[in-house]
Every structure is written in C-alpha cells, then in structure tokens.
TrEMBL record:
The chain crosses the membrane at residues 42-66. Keywords: Membrane, Transmembrane, Transmembrane helix. This is Transmembrane protein PGPGW. It comes from Chelativorans composti.
Length: 103
C-alpha cells in the first residue's frame, strides 16, 4: 500500500499544471521552486511597469502563477473570481451561470 501511495505522490508532482485565461491554457513549469520564482519575478518586474519593455500586466500574471502554490494567494484569487462571476451575472453580461471553480 505504501508503494502505491508513493507512486501516486510522484505522479501528482510530475503532472503538468496550466493557467487558464480567456479559454486558453498556458503551461506552468513543473518545479514548484521555478513557479514561485517566476511568479515573484513577474510581480516585482511589474512594479516597474512604467518602463517601455515591462508592463503593469505582469503583476496579475505573477499573482496567477503564485496562486498555484501559495494558499493565501489562491484564496484571494478564488474570492476575486467568484466576485467577478457574480457581478457579471448580476449585470447580465454573463454567458452562463458561474461554473464550479476547480484547481
């Protein structure tokens, strides 16, 4: 039984993670350390968004990447997503009812 549990954990850790934005999927790095580093880098460089190459768009992308590994960021992202979908449905802009949010 232990051997199967270890295999399941290994398979889970090697599973490819994706960010889904506007119906498109973008792959994330497999390594947790790399995901956290890249997410933090996006947030920090996004603060220099007034520079020509960088942009303020990098901050939400970095937070989205970090939300896959940091529970506090994930909770805030989910709250924002639920709020946004409810707001959209109240205004009549929504195409459908809010779907179940799965990670």
């Amino acid at each position: 039984m232990d051997h199967q549990d270890n295999d399941h954990r290994i398979d889970e850790s090697l599973r490819r993670r994706y960010i889904r934005v506007a119906g498109k999927q973008f792959p994330l790095p497999r390594s947790r350390k790399t995901r956290i580093t890249s997410g933090a880098t996006f947030v920090v460089l996004g603060m220099f968004g007034f520079l020509p190459v960088l942009g303020f768009w990098m901050i939400p992308v970095g937070l989205l990447i970090l939300s896959h590994d940091l529970p506090s960021v994930r909770r805030r992202r989910r709250r924002l997503e639920v709020w946004w979908l409810r707001r959209r449905d109240r205004r009549g802009d929504g195409l459908s009812r809010p779907r179940e949010i799965a990670d």
